Amino acid sequence: MAVREMAAGPPGPGRDEEAALLFERAHYRHDPRWLLPVPPRLCLACALELLPEPGVSLVRKKHVLSCFRDALIRHTSLITQLVAQDQRVCIHFISTLFGLLCSTEDGSTADLCIEVLIQLITQLKLEQTIHCLLDECHRELCNMPSMRGSLATLTLLGKLVDAIPALADTLVMEHGNLMEHLLRGLVYPSEGVQASVCYLYGKLYAAPVAAEMLSGHFREKLCPLFLSTLDSAQTKELQINCLGLLRQLLKYDLFVTMIMNKSALLESAESVEGPPRETSLPLVLKKLLLSRDETLQVASVHCITAVLVHSPVKHAQAFIHADIPEFLFERLSSSSEVLIWSVYSCLILLAEEPLFFSKCHTVYGIESVVRSLQGSLKVSNTELHKQGLLLFAEILTRQPEEIKLFTSSAMCRDAGRVLQEAVSSPVLEVAAEAVKATSAFLRKDHQSSPPVQYRELRALVEAMLSRCADLSQTPLNRRPLGHTSSRDLDKAILRRGKFLQSTLEGFQNACRLAVEFQSEPLAQENPFTAPSAEKEDTLEAFSEFLLSTYDSLCVPMVMRHSEQATHPALMEVFFSTLHSLFVIVPHMREKFSKKLAASSFIRLTVELKARFCSGLSHSALNQVCSSFLYYMCLNLLSTPEKTRPPSQEELSAVSELLQHGLPQINSRGPESLAFLSDRQYVEETARKRQYCILILFYLAYIHEDRFVLEAELFGAVQSFLLSLQDQGECPPPVVFRASIYLLAVCQDKDGALDEVSVSAIRKFLEDIPDLHLVYTHHSSMLKFFLLYPVLMSRFGHRVLELWFSWEEISYEELDCVPSAGQPTLPAGLAALFLILRSSPSILLILLDLIYSSPMDIARKVLIVLRTFLRRNEDVQVGGLIRGHFLLILQHLLVEYGPSTSGASGNLPLLLSLLSLVQLRSESEQELDSMAMKLLHQVSKLCGKCSPTDVAILQPSFNFLYWSLHQTTPCSRQRAAAVLLSSTALMELLEKLLVLTWAKVGSPGTELLCSAWLLTTSLSAQQHRSSLQVHQTLSVELDQVLNVLSFPKKQAALLSAAIVRFLRTALQQGFSSALVVLVPSGARPPPVPEDTVLAPLGTSQVLSLVIGLQNLLVQKDPLLSQSCVSCLEALLDYLHARSPDVALHVASQPWNRFLLFTLLDAGENSFLRPEVLRLMTLFVRFQSSSILSHEEVGHVLQEAALADLSALSSTTLQALRGFFLQVRSMGLLADPSTAQTLQASLEGLLAQASSAQPPLQDMLCLGGVAVSLSHIRD
């Protein structure tokens, strides 16, 4: 009894502590080896017998377990060796501890048992003991009628698998039916048991093999049960364990798909009525996201992120439909950096789904993002800064243009200021992300308009560039020793290059923004700016800021960086931005191009292409550099300073040449010179490449960028020209201009040209229409042409004329300086004086210039000659020029007189001036004797010309035509008589008229137009005044009719002129004494009904009508009115000879189609004069099938309702004629409408005739003199 009490109860207060660790009743039987030799002095055999003993108190058992745990921790090796000596003892010890675990109801004891078991199992590492414990656990769970007491076993299993992860596979494979018990535990109404089950599940699914084996279990049984448990969890322990299990599941794409598919099915069934249904994962996580527990919020966000990581495209929509983004944005107001960072990461993944933007979640949440960034930038968490800016950049980049992100100017301003603060961050990684976000922010749809806050945009761009400048100016740590330091230096340079590239990309977007705003009037300036305020907040100011900043800051930064390293991607952005700057400030592009060229950018670009773009490498960089060179060259060529601007045709040809040739130039200067010097046969593609190289050298040298040696370039250009001569080719003018200029500026470095080269140059120059096409103003160019006698004799006159026209000298001041003053001469004039001293014979060319050049150039030459003679009294040239000067002066006074001052000595120019003066003279002016003499001389001059002398004939014919039409009837009769007396002129006109239908040898449409118009005018005046005819003009009538009946592609004015000629012939009844219309060869005898229409036939009449109809539908105003007038004359001619034929022609069904085609030209198209006259004609000939009485009435009603005050006098006259014709035919159905219309017309016509003069009748259309009334009326 005493022994039992001693064993059952704790020792007394005075008993030794070690005695409590011994089971004294049985200890004497135990082998001493089971007694630990170190404290605590625990006998393992006693422990085995004491722990299952029911009479031993729980406190003593806990004490023994605690001591054993401490011994196991402190003396692991000793304990494991002792226990492992006997396998049976080991298994028995495990069973005893497990039995105590299952039998105790004290939670702390159970925890202690679990801890000891886990430590013992993990230290022993014996498979038999592990399987023994697993079997015990399995047996315990199987024998348990309910899950009430399963908590300890489940907890043990969970922690055991946690300690030994490999047990997960064993547990699933060998104890698979345990899963059913776990499912029972998951539905047991105890959240502690459920938490243990979720914990164990989490450890099982953490093992890939076990997870794969449990996939079917999860799909069929666990998935809905687990989601329901997570949704209904109340305790934090269960919530955490559920989320832990979920995190493990979400690591596998298979389980993510199962869970999200299950959720999708549940969401699709939400509208179906019935009992409460299972919940979906998005809704569960949304519920946790709304909890006030920060840990659960973070875990929820992590789970959403874990799902999206697998595939945002597949799974983002489910969370978006659950309005998860809305609540994520709300969580950004938290003070927890962990939560904010997690939300940033999650939103970045959601932003990959377009639905995220289309449902306007970004519009809802952008304010939260901006405010969150404002707060985040105040803390020192750089990872948080980077993640937030990354999210901001994603939103700004992916936001659809049609959905405006910033709904107010204030929010847009706040966003810009946040970015401004972020780009100024001292942490390079943060600043780099901020620059990317800034680049995305600089988008048109992100800016509020109106007003666009250009001042804020400017501040943002300045901050971005300032941060980049600070980085570029930070000295690099250059260590002279070690490969490691060299690699670090390379990395630092690479980081700078990437940051500089991102900055340039942002600047490029700012440039693109400025270009896009140019097409929006409301974005030009801030409408709320006071009128008196300085216009800083305007698009123009912002554009000029971009140009000046790039010029003063970005270009130097890139140049400094390129000295350390040249990155193709960086240079691609750099040149692309330079290209865009040409468009931003259009009025500055020429000036900017010249500055770039003067800053050696041609050399820089060519060398960059040669370095990186050989072959097919870096094609994008090659394209960008070529495009930049293309536009810069075009800007320089289109507005040259030292040569004439090219024509549109030349510019188009050069544009095509550069566009195709520049991408192929990927060689350095010496290689390009060698390519130019190649005298072997050159293919067309290679030749065009040579052309481009010469243009680049030419533009570079003009702007003092001489990046190849002059002597080598001089020889290369010579070889190039000789190669052209050998192959019989002629270069384009711009290429030859470049060649001549380069030879001129380089000749001092390499001596003079040989005779072969000079001869080749002369031949090329002789093939050029005018020297100004290849002239570039430079003193070396003048010296070049005057140095070689062969060139001076042939081209000296023109070169000097061009030189004087380009040389900018204050000649008045030069002429007023007395000879004693001897001021310093300009460089160009000093060079000319040196040439004159060496070759006095050039003075004769200057004298010819005084005679033949325009007055301004002639006056310049006079002043220069006078100054030269004053300064060079020793040069004896008085006898050379004294005899010619008086003759030249007399000729100028007599030939041109004061009224034609400034007339050129060139005959075509003089004639053009005469015709221009005639055009601007007053109409109905009598021709005086001087005018008649000019008329006579011009007619004689024309008579001496051939049809190919277009340059002389065109202005001459213009002058003659205007002289006939801009004078009084009496003078017109005298002028016509003078012209008719010139037999040579009449013969020339006949030749020109025949050339109209000639297949070859046509002199040009303009001259033919003038010939027909002049012939028509002379024929009409001769017929009207019965003037004497000295030479008749024969014209083939069939050819005239064919040209009009079957019109080909020809100018409308030429067709109008021929129609006017035919109309005159019809009005004269083909009885003109001047113009004889002859048949084109043998014709069959006419049928009886054609005799009365002679010389026309019925078929010819119908063909002519169809031809006139075809010309009418071209809807050219002048041609249309001429055709209507011709139709009137034709019907009058037919009516006078055969009224039936006239009515037949007027009633053709095609006339109605023609009329409605003309009426289909737009609103109120019937109020065009040609349409009104055509309807008048149909009414006159009673063609009711063409224009019915009802339609006539409708036209009058519409005319009465129209705003007649806006019509021209010609249209009013035509409308009045239509009205009077309708009234005379008795077709006025509505007297009141007719009366109102008549009153309006008469009032407007009277007002128009008295209020303002008529529109100008005499015009020059495409170089052809035209009288509108002559063609129209």
Automatic annotation (TrEMBL):
An example Gene Ontology biological process: meiosis I
Record-linked SUPFAM superfamilies: ARM repeat
Highest taxon of the lineage: Eukaryota
Listed name of the protein: Meiosis inhibitor protein 1
Protein source organism: Trichechus manatus latirostris (Florida manatee)
Organism ancestry: Eukaryota, Metazoa, Chordata, Craniata, Vertebrata
